[in-house]
Every structure is written in structure tokens, then in C-alpha cells.
Target: Trehalose synthase
Amino acid sequence: MHAPALPDRSVAAYAGVVESDRIERLRSRADALGDARILHVNSTATGGGVAELLRSIVPLCTDLGVETEWLVLDADDEFFEVTKAMHNGLQGDDAALTDAMQATYRAVTERNAAELDGEYDLVVLHDPQPLGMLDRLRERLPDAPIVWRCHIDLTEPSPDHLGFVAEYASRVDHAIVSRSDYAGVVDVPTSVVYPSIDPLSEKNRALDEATIAAEHDRLYPLSFDAPVVAQVSRFDPWKDQFGTLAAFRRAREEVPDLQLALAGGMAGDDPEGLAVYEQVARDALGDPDIHVLTDLPDTTINALQRGADVVVQKSLREGFGLVVSEALWKRTPVVGSTVGGIPLQIEDGKTGYLVAPDDAQAAGARIVDLLGDDERRARFGTNARERVRERFLLPRQLTELFDIFLDVLESDR
Model:
């Protein structure tokens, strides 16, 4: 395992965007944790929401005086093909999980666990990838409670995949999920914590007009002088870029100069990403109004979300979908599907619109509705910013995590 490089974070810097009483509560919970040492483990340092969350959470914990480390599994493509199949299975896909795949999973996770040499009071395993470390961790750290933080949409998991994951997850001390509908899938004490965006990260921080203009120039030939619809997502079958393409083509029938930006990257632990990107690029080939963009810097994504007239998130499954809150924070209304955590973020008819995940025609119609009413878009944008400020910023999430860690540590004692 290895520790990713991390940026600096200061809790004092959040005073400009978060109410003082929330900052004080966060400080008090950090003080209550005292000298507890916490370890987070996941499967990649780049791409995807988990890595983004940990990149902000871990250094902020350090600034608050809570000794926190983040380690990433060392694994090869064969392992990630297995864990992506598990991820897909937990989200409802019925792909096979063979004995050979299970053996690969166990071998890699046990090898990584054997490399652990630090001392910790609590361990947080993120998603299915590191769960196979459980038995070795129990031997190595017998007094440390283990928390499973699941970021996946567990609405309709495949029984075979859930059964395999539950072999481990049913033996952790506590589970955390992103939505109440996911609780109870594994029979252990479970808490619900909504993920959050970091308003000070490069992707979400305030940008001056000159920076926005420069970043928009980098996106040429995409032009912000004509209407722009954007979707920012990993290239992944569940993100349904093909449904967004269909919604865009429906909307362009009424808005002829409409453009679409499909921006995304490939997570280090997702072997499907490149293939999906190539399929999307082929579908868009020859249409000058569709821009398929990959591996953009976070500042460019920030400027794209600010410059877009409407953002779309037409996922088929979604653990939470923080790209929705990212856009809403920037006062850009979102048309999203009624899956996972998306409805928790979008207030239908107030900050954006919700549509059925398989209804590209309805998504296209809602895009047209928003593009045709500047006043409505501005009103939705104002509402959206405040909703994210109230519910989906990092200090709130970290306070809730600290509360859970305190409870788990106390119960373990």
C-alpha cells in the first residue's frame, strides 16, 4: 500500500463559506477524539468521488489535530477487473463472480493487509475493494474497530455479489452508507452520512472572471456564446452518457445552436473507463456541437460547470453523485435522474428537474424548459447555491463522521 500526496487544508479557511457554529461543532468533535489514530483505505488516489473526498478529508483532519492517514491498495488490472465486476454487481448487474475471481480478490487484499505496519485506533475501509483485508486487520489490530464506508448504490444488488461482499461486511463493527434506502443491506449497525463537496478545492473554489475566460478559451471549439449543456462524470456505463446524448439531440430539435460537453476521466481502479470513452466518442463523431472531453484539470471543470447553462446527470445507478452538488454550488441548475442520491440534492422545480433514469426524451424537454427561461435559471441557481451551503459542504460531513467514530470507539471500549 502507499500514501498519496495531499494538499494542505485549514479549517479556518472555511469560515467564509460555512456558519461559525458548524465550524465550532467540528472543532469540538475533533477535540473529543483526542489522540485517536484513524486510517482510511481505498483503491485509488485518482479519479472518482472517493479519492476526491479523502483528498480533502484527510488533510483537514490533520489540521484539526486528529491523526489521520490514507493508504491506497497496490493492485494490478486483474484485481481491478474483479472489483469493478463486484461494483457493478452491487449496483444490480448479474455478471459472473467466479471462484478464480474471488481467489484473485482474496490474494491481493490479504497481501496488502500484510504490508500494514502502523498503529491505529480505528480503520475505515472504503467500498468493496479493501474489505478482503478484514481478517488480517483483525489479527494485526485486534483492538481497532473497523468501519465499512460504502459509497455504492445498493438499491437492487445482485444476490451473488452481495453474498460475497457480505462475508466480510457482516463482520465489521459499523457501516456507513450514503442514503437511508441502502441501510439494512448488511446486518451490522449502520449510519447514513451524505457525502459533500469541498468548496475550497480547485474544482469548487471561486474563480475570477479572467480565470473563467481563460479556461473557457482552453475548451475551444466549445463556445460559451451559444447555449451549453454539460455532463461531468467518469466514463462508466452507469453514468449513461448515451442517454445524455439522446437528451441533447431531443433538446437541439428546439434549440438549434445548442452544444453538449461530455467531460470525464478514468479512475485508476476502473478498467471499463477507456472502452466507454471510446464508445461515446464514436457516437459523437462528426457532430461539431458535441464535445467529448477527458482528463481536464479541475480548474477547467470548475469553469465548465459555471459556464454551462444546464448540467445533466442522467445516471442509471448512483451512490450519491457529488457532481450534482458541484454544479448546484456554482448556481447552475441540474436535470438529473431519480436514482441514488441525486433526488436528495435536486429539489424538483426549485433547483433543477428530476426525470426517470430511462427517459431521455423527458430530460431533453426539461433542458429546453430551462434554456427558454433565463429568469427561471437564475432563480433555480440562487436556490441551488443555498441548498448546497445548508446540506452538502465538507465540514458538515466531517462532523457527522467524527460523531460516528466517537460512538464506535466508545462502544468498542
User: Anything to note?
Assistant: The domain at 11-196+393-412 is CATH 3.40.50.2000 (Rossmann fold). The first helix runs from residue 20 to 33.
